[in-house]
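Researcher: Go.
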Amino acid sequence: MEVRGGPQVNEVVVRVRFFAGAAAAAGREEEQLPVPAGTTLDALVERLAGRGPDLAKVLAASSFLLDAVAARPGDELTPGVTLDVLPPFAGG
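Model: Structure:
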């Protein structure tokens, strides 16, 4: 029996990197998070925001990159993707 399309992926691992104030609010600079296949950026951000009000506040003001490309809320997370959480930066 031949299976077409290869094995079905039920879970993907996302590398999350927190920068500046996001790292302070998250209590870490980086982590690996398993999420169900089909998870979108906004769903992951909502999950992260549930960790506490400080992180939720930073995430609400942050920009996000998926593999160094600007991300949109509905973007689906793919296996091995890196999510960068970039809070607003001050200075010049």
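Model: The chain is about 25% helix and 30% strand.
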